[in-house]
């Protein structure tokens, strides 16, 4: 099984000939059939010749499969860190046989939590709605996304998020595909939707600019093989 070394939000690439036992890990673990991890202190400096790659850009540097395996292991490690103590009474949690954790004092159990989010390609007369999120690098634009709230269906979330972020109403919400997105522990569920009514009016909080773009006139868009890019490519394929 492959072993990954994590340091903060980075994956560590050791120099040739490195030895596992030489690493002082603050946590270790494994996911059966997937791989093992070692976590080293984020403040520690690395030996000569070692380098780090941010988990987000692992896709570009080492390919889709490595990105998926590393992030699967990271998600497990992250969950274990966040479930050390019982959220109800504060006692240390114990491992159960089925990979969950249980509190020996009050019986509370804990399993990995995934936060679903929707990502939506809204179309209007052959144009695609793209927004610039304040958190995006530079002038990059993308399809809009948001987390599912308690009590919502995915379709509810699509309608609410688009209304909140750019002030328009959408209809014909149609499932497109999904992607595990480990930043920090999400499942992105992609949809296509159609403009129904309203003019674009950005919220100014998350989105500072949004507009309708024709396929031949797109701004800078995500470069990686993320579901946002797949939604945009799907739009281009159908309208150009
Ligand atoms: Zn407890």
Automatic annotation (TrEMBL):
InterPro entries reported in the protein's UniProt record: NAD-cap_RNA_hydrolase_NudC (IPR050241), NudC-like_C (IPR049734), NUDIX_hydrolase-like_dom_sf (IPR015797), NUDIX_hydrolase_CS (IPR020084), NUDIX_hydrolase_dom (IPR000086), Znr_NADH_PPase (IPR015376)
Residue span, Nudix hydrolase domain: 112-237
Gene3D superfamilies listed in its UniProt record: 3.90.79.20, Nucleoside Triphosphate Pyrophosphohydrolase
Gene Ontology MF term list: metal ion binding; NADH pyrophosphatase activity
Reactions this protein catalyses: a 5'-end NAD(+)-phospho-ribonucleoside in mRNA + H2O = a 5'-end phospho-adenosine-phospho-ribonucleoside in mRNA + beta-nicotinamide D-ribonucleotide + 2 H(+)
Any GO BP: NADP+ catabolic process
Cofactor(s) required for function per UniProt: Mg(2+); Zn(2+)
Its EC number(s): 3.6.1.22
Signal sequence, renumbered to the chain: none
GO cellular component, one term: cytosol
Family: Belongs to the Nudix hydrolase family. NudC subfamily.
PANTHER family, sorted: NAD-CAPPED RNA HYDROLASE NUDT12 (PTHR42904:SF6), NUDIX HYDROLASE, NUDC SUBFAMILY (PTHR42904)
Protein name per the record: NAD(+) diphosphatase
Upper classification of the organism: Bacteria, Thermotogati, Synergistota, Synergistia, Synergistales
